[in-house]
Amino acid sequence: xxxxxxNDTFLRxxxxxxxxxxxxxLMRQAGRYLPEYNATRxxxxxxxxxxxxxDFATEVTLQPxxxxxxxxxxxFSDILTVPDAMGLGLRFAAGEGPKFDRPLRTETDVAAxxxxxxxxxxxxxxAVAQIRRALVQNGTQRVPLIGFSGSPWTLACYMVExxxxxxxxxxxTMLYARPDLMHRILSVNAEAVAQYLAAQIDAGAQxxxxxxxxxxxxxxxxxxxxxxxxxxxxxxxxxxxxxxADVPVILFTKGGGQWLEAMADTGADALGLDxxxxxxxxxxxxxxxxxxxxxxxxxxxxxxxxxxxxxxxRLLDCFGPVEAGAGHVFNLGHGISQFTPPEHVSALVEAVHxxxxxxxxx
Length: 362
Fold this sequence. Notes:
Layout: H1 9-14, H2 35-44, H3 47-51, H4 54-67, E1 73-74, H5 81-85, E2 90-93, E3 97-100, H6 107-112, H7 122-134, E4 136-137, E5 140-141, E6 145-150, H8 152-161, H9 169-177, H10 179-203, E7 207-212, H11 222-240, E8 249-253, H12 260-264, E9 270-272, H13 279-286, E10 291-293, H14 305-319, E11 328-329, H15 342-361
Parallel strand pairs: 1-6, 6-7, 7-8, 8-9, 9-10, 10-11
Antiparallel strand pairs: 2-3, 4-5
């Protein structure tokens, strides 16, 4: 895995180094909006059959890169691999999303929780290594590979609720009624996530992203104590890991726009923004401390191509002048919808690359 990168624009942007244009990738870019993904998933037989097979995971990771001029690949996996390895019994119910057969509801459940043996997640690390090899063409690696994990808090939401939730009543009740139990879960999760991301880096991931998808459901104060503090613990562990110290870390909290300054102090190299945060004002708030990633509303991709290009240009202009120390990675404010017309993504990629090249030449 020593092939030079043919395109390192994404990594340069994360490190706030000069680039010729604004790099672009999409959260959930390998997904159900692509007919080729659906064909591979049908061959795999199930989502877990797809995610837990390195050959299939490699195939779907590369599919969007073969279709679009994206600037990074992201490992195809799921954020719930870690709690599954903890023995909580992950399954995907048709039409209902992920479910755990053994959620954490009692003091006994929480006391028994432990960091899993990383060998139980060997299929993830094998997929990372295989994808890195598959990205090499003619002696160079096409684009960098991103690894990822759910944040300790987001994983805890699924682990306590037993699946997705509309109101997070069960997990937030535990948080307020038994904060000791919640801190115990989060401590175990933070250690597990740190080990998991470090192992992905050891296998070949060149940047990693922490998805704090449900941090924004917390009240101010609770977010800092029960979400941010544990994401920061993960980042600190990665920066202390010899092989991971120079690997950029992206922290994304959906609904976290009010806490950007605190998030920028975690040691993350970049912050992901959802579409509710003004990109220019976010840049003014964090200065040159971190790069920014985002933040197009995914539903823009249902509009005609001309409207998509207009919104892309508006966001790039909103970020402001490209100067030394600035770093911007264009992305959506959350994952791409399965109903997105694939050709509309082509319009977005073209608009971002062409308009940003003009901005970077100024």
